[in-house]
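User: Predict the complex.
Assistant: Input components as received:
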Amino acid sequence: MTLRRAATILLLLMPGLGLILALIGAVVYIAVAQSFGLYSLMGESAFSLAFWSDTMGKKAFDKAVRYSIYVGVLSAIFSVILAYPLAIWLRKPFAGSVTIGAVLKAPLLVHGLVAAFLYINIISYNGLLNQVMQGLGIWDGPKRLQNDRNAIGVLILQTWKNMPFALLLLTGAVQAISDDVLDAARDLGAGSWARFRKVIAPLTVSGLQAAMVIIFIGALADFSFQTIAGPTNRQSLAQLMVNFKGRGDWHSAAVVGVSMMAIALIGSALLAVAARMIMRGRLK
Amino acid sequence: MGAIRISGVTKSFGEFQALSSISLEVAQGEFVTLLGPSGCGKTTLLKIISGFIEPTDGQIEIGGENVTRLPPEQRDTALCFQSYALFPHLTVRENLEFGLRQKKLGRDEIASRVRDVSTKLELAAQMDKLPNQLSGGQQQRVSLGRALVMRPSVILFDEPLSNLDAKLRDQVRIEIRRIQKDYDLTAIYVTHDQAEALAMSDRVVVLNQGRAEQIDTPERLYAAPATSFVADFIGSANVMEGTVLSADGAGLCTVETPIGVLEAKDAGVPPGAIRRLSWRPEKAQIGEPGLTATVTHRAFQGHFTDLTVDTGGTLYRVQTGRDDIREGDGITFALRPADIVFLEAVG
Ligand SMILES: Nc1ncnc2c1ncn2[C@@H]1O[C@H](COP(=O)(O)OP(=O)(O)O)[C@@H](O)[C@H]1O
Ligand SMILES: [Mg+2]
């Protein structure tokens, strides 16, 4: 009976899950195999650890790993930090709240590249920001803001693009908390911060984890924002991968790709655990 | 001191007036019920007392202090929600401790208060469970316990029994009253169930469309309703119109009603005045000569029988201990002067 049940469930899941697993599996398999010198697109295929040891020994790789993690983690954190208060503010409908919600979600509809070019235009040497700041007398002369070393431009773009997504997930999570539960906390003496820490945060942690993980993975693998607005003295993992590929070094590109997947996986798990620990902190 | 003074509290939601100038004083240790049909403003008044809603006009004093503008987290009141509103992510113990930790009480104090309440409410075995692992009755007790550990000056209940089955309801009703007396709490209790209100309360406020129709003890509300709304809402009294004909100067007067000319106690109503009158179904003296009626419906209730009777084309409810009356029977009954209550004027 249980065997039959398990088989039924498996069969029902097959069309969806099977396809996903087959596609992901194929990609992961090819990438891993290529990183070990197999499935060579040009030349001989032979198993080798050389690509891993060569690539991992490169300073550019080390820098790319640290840089991509930096962008991934900070983008995820900034996005949810901005999204939380908005989600709580928009929890209960009020006059204009639907419009505000729609406007806030607009970045989801704008392609990242378009946003990046717009952003570059605004901060360029003769751009709007420089003109305004000089006009107001705050800055003496124009400043070079493009491709800054700390990737603030990339972080702004990532946050701008991803905050609406975090907002979408967190709004759902926050709206699922009943008014009575929040009122009960208030009645028992909890002010707004205590209500957030002790009720809203622990009850929305799943939405928070989902938002952080998905934003982290996306920002970790960023290519377009980095190419347009990122610092020029370092590369993101995606950039590095494309670089290797451009030189015809598919095996080293695969090493970077596999590393990126591994970092995404481990990083996501760590972020999720950290978020849970911080947000679920039992009352002490 | 837990006395509450509500003075002229009015609440409008836009055009809609949910409460109209409610005034009420509740003494320390008193158990007062807000009774009325759904939508009459009971929850609104409770939320004004607890601070979740700010009144449009009027003021609330608790223990002599004006709290009208104080937010709920700073008021010494505790509210028991109809939905229980337990924190779903916290265990029973953590739910009970929540308010005490907010108050920053010492560890020992918290432990002893929680132990005290959990023993009283028989929750000791459930302390490490999450709310969704409890039965409805147990959740209700946790919600009650969470309010009780706070030892508030005022405890407020919003229809706390409406999600329980009938048997449990009677049991918890007694429990609530016992605990309220044990801790000498001042309580305001909201219900739409008149039997619950009569059974539990020291005094009852009957609300109708945002107005207090009558504020009185259960006994007085039953024996001397002030308006036809109260007479009907509490115990489904028969209400009819009558014109006072004359008073005999010896405490009795005659009244012309749709069922005939009746004698009533003289309530100082001048002859010629048209008033609403009420009488209780169980006060009909069945078998006595006087009024004649035909039984149109009979419902046996165990210790009495409910009859609907047709008197001159109008239907009234009467109750009797006799079980030999059948539908279609003709009966006679009389009403004693003392059992006829004058209500509000007509028109
Ligand atoms: N926030 C609100 N906005 C508009 N109308 C409200 C609001 N809250 C309550 N009301 C109205 O006020 C009336 C009284 O509501 P309530 O106090 O909840 O009634 P009860 O608890 O007696 O059933 C109802 O007609 C309800 O629709
Ligand atoms: Mg209500």
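The first strand of chain B starts at residue 4 and ends at 13.
Let me know if you want any component modeled separately.
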